[in-house]
Predict the 3D structure of the following.
Amino acid sequence: MKQIYYKLKKLFHNLFAFTAPESITTPLPEAKQLTPQSENKQIAPPMEIEQVILPPPVMVENAPPSRQGMTYAIGDIHGEVTLLRRLFEILPLREEDTLVFLGDCLNRGEDSVGTIYALRDLKQQHPACIFLRGNHEDKWLECWDGARFTHAPKSKSARRLWRHYQGKIPFAVGDWLEETRIDYEDKYAYYAHAGALPGHPYASTSDKEKMWGVEGFLESEYDWGKPIVCGHWGLIDPLIKPNLICVDTRACRGGMLTAIRLPDRKLFQVQHTYNTSHKHKHQKARMKQVK
């Protein structure tokens, strides 16, 4: 057991160690603010992103003797690279576990490019990473010609990012976008950014519907054979039903960055908090079991 622990400790010691060529830093929203960021908000000068190191993996209590791999599904990050780092400080990740990022990893938040660099480095250290394509990735891919971005998507946050890099978004971003996939399936669930078509077999859902969503999905009681795990919908709290799970909890709007572990449905959440008297940013984390 000790040999396995030290092997994992060495494997993850330098996880997320990266330096992006430039970073974009926008002021964080006030605590519990749930409105989109203003287009007129000024962007701070580029700064080097701090080194992000994942602590040694924590052994999961009461793990089965076979050490069966679990799946962690992570909700919409939207450029919140600091929250991403905090999340990995509390995830009891093991070598045999799979990470599924549910899409919308960029736009709106603290540092979209820095987030992509962090995810690329994570994939090198922990190959069992799945990056799903959300509607924001889909928009950026429409502007990518395989070598460079020709223009920015028509959204406020995307245009801010474009202006910040003077139209020269790093190649690594487009290269990572090409790696994203529409959906993923394992023995626990189906995973798609915005869910599935209610009332129809999962295979009937189009790629566009999986990325952009279908009205009535969250209210559906339809049984797709496995739960659908998604992000996209911007909820205040995670929605966990027998047939579907949504873990987009507005990380970039004063909410939480949420991950859920399957099959036990344990939640892991981190959130920006503020000391208003000193205007210092802090982080808090919480975990809870959902039956």
Helices lie at 2-12, 81-90, 112-125, 135-141, 156-164, 171-179, 207-212. The longest strand covers residues 266-275. The chain is about 25% helix and 20% strand. The two ends are 30 Å apart (CA to CA).
